[in-house]
Each structure stands twice: as structure tokens, then as C-alpha cells.
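REQUEST FORM: STRUCTURE PREDICTION
Request ID: SP-0412
Submitted by: Lab K.M.
Chain count: 1
Length (residues): 118
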Amino acid sequence: MDYFSNSELQDLLRSLRNVTNHGQLNWQRVGKYDFDAKIGGNHFLLYTRDNDGYEPIGLIISQNNDEVEKISQEDLGENSSHQLSELYGVVKRKTLGIDKVVKNILESVKQLEEEPPF
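STATUS: Completed
RESULT:
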């Protein structure tokens, strides 16, 4: 981290997670495990270092096409690292529609449970 203080980064990660969770910020899938979002002239690219969908996770913050900050879990303290992981999880679930898939599966299983076995 070059520009953001640890507390600023924690606030940013928390805010991004909250607005994503509430559907106020939409992320786009730009690779198998990469996601990006834009707010005004600010661009956020969320990625996994090994391109496998698992930690370590990184975040690139750009403004007007200039990279401002490149953050990796490996460079962060425990709290910020955890928040980056939580943000990635929320973005992945929302963007890939995982919540809808889980809901559909659970509804199907519930219907099976309600049916008599014979």
C-alpha cells in the first residue's frame, strides 16, 4: 500500500462490501475469477493472485485509468486481509448468482422431503 492508510483501506473495504451487499454497486465478471466495478472515475479490479478463485486476493484501485493502489492480502494486516476476503466472497456470490442457485436447490430438496417416499 502506498497511498491509503490502514484505517482508510478498512473503511473502503467495508463500504464496498456494504454497497455490494445491498445491490448499490454492481460488479462485472472480467475473467474466470476476476471482477471489476466502477464508481464515477474510480475503477476497482478484484482478483485472485493464482487465478483460481481462492486466496490470496488482490485489489487494484484506479482513477481515470491511472493505477492508484495495488493491494494484496499478503501485504495487509489480519483485519484488512479478512475484509478483502469478505468483499471477494460477496462480489463472487452476487455476480455469479450463487444465492439464487442455493435457493433453488434448497427449494427442490424441500419439495422432495415433502413428498411421500413411495
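NOTES: Helices lie at 6-21, 78-96, 98-114.
Reviewed by: T.R.
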